[in-house]
# Entry
Amino acid sequence: MTSIDLGRHPRGNGFLLPEEVENEFFFHLTVGMCDACTMVQLQSEVPQEIRYHDAYPYHASGSAVHRRHFEQNARHFLDTELTGPDPFIVEIGSNDGVMLATIAQAGVRHLGVEPSKEVAEMSMAKGVRVLSEFFDESTAGKILFEHGPADVVFGANCIAHIAHLASVFRGVETLLAPNGVFVFEEPYLGSVVGQVAFDMIYDEHSFYFAVRSVQAMAARFDLELVNVEPLALHGGTMRYTIARPSMRTPTPAVGEWLAKEKESRLGEKKTLERFGVSVERIRDDLNALLRKIHAEGGRVVGYGAPAKAATVTNYCGIGPDLVPFVCDSTPSKQGRLVAGSHIPVRSPEEFRADYPEYALLFAWNHAEEIMANEKEFRERGGRWILYVPDVHIV
Ligand code: TYD
# Structure
């Protein structure tokens, strides 16, 4: 097992109130690659009840680009997989209903499985039917009993979050109709490694999938990987389609991506070790840049408070002394502190009210949308600091 050690970390989405600082939860953040199947995964597990509590702050509808993407996803399913008599779709981790709302509007049978109450309630307000539980083999059995087999089981930015992945696959195998498909979209290991996006590593990301490791995982549960499609979301996502064996003909993309992974040596020890060296370089460069700006009297505000910000600030030793606040459009994050580094989260209006010299873009996966919205910052001389694939100013 080859490992990368990022040290002591809090929960990525563990935004906390100042009075909660004393009892903050920390764990040791390391990822390892299995020498046999090349799956990359966290080596320590934070219990899922601690991660996906009732006030889970991530809202999938928080980005216009994501809203459009999930609406298109829903329309695609309605036009392709959900055209038979009384079709049924299940979404694992349906969050605030960003995808299922379109399915519900079309009057198609659906069920979201979402353990975090607040986001589940947001989706119910959109007319989405939700089971507020964790998805596993036993939940799948219950759904099958009550609703019958699913034509589509979908998950976005969720399947790789589930430490009990084997139980999820057994559940899908139970629930899927004979010609059904299991479709999921997750950040792609090739993009994480290629962009040195080490901030994608935090407690919620239990697995870092690649085509080869997903194919091996599917085969272990008597399922077959039949298609892969790269997407631009979250800095590089792969969409996997899995079916029962011999029910669908695998597309050429599967073989092509397997060949690409082999050529780029994605599943090799040395690649992960090189990634580890680049991560240390980014930490040192970013810390040095922020200290230099600070020493010269410049101000840096963080832009976006994704879970990623906890990894970067804690790993790189960035606190409120170097970045006095981060702004984020999510109301439930505002007024709280970034986990571990305790940088306050404020609204984007505070950023606009008094532009700093620099904005450190933690939500770099939304760079296009954010930079377009914040055109004025740059027009007034402000500069963006980015740290993937290396530290640079634009
Ligand atoms: P995201 O990268 O989607 O999530 P994570 O790393 O936690 O999985 O989070 C992006 C954050 O950026 C989210 O908290 C919302 C915020 N944001 C803004 O503040 N303004 C914006 O224009 C956009 C698109 C996002």
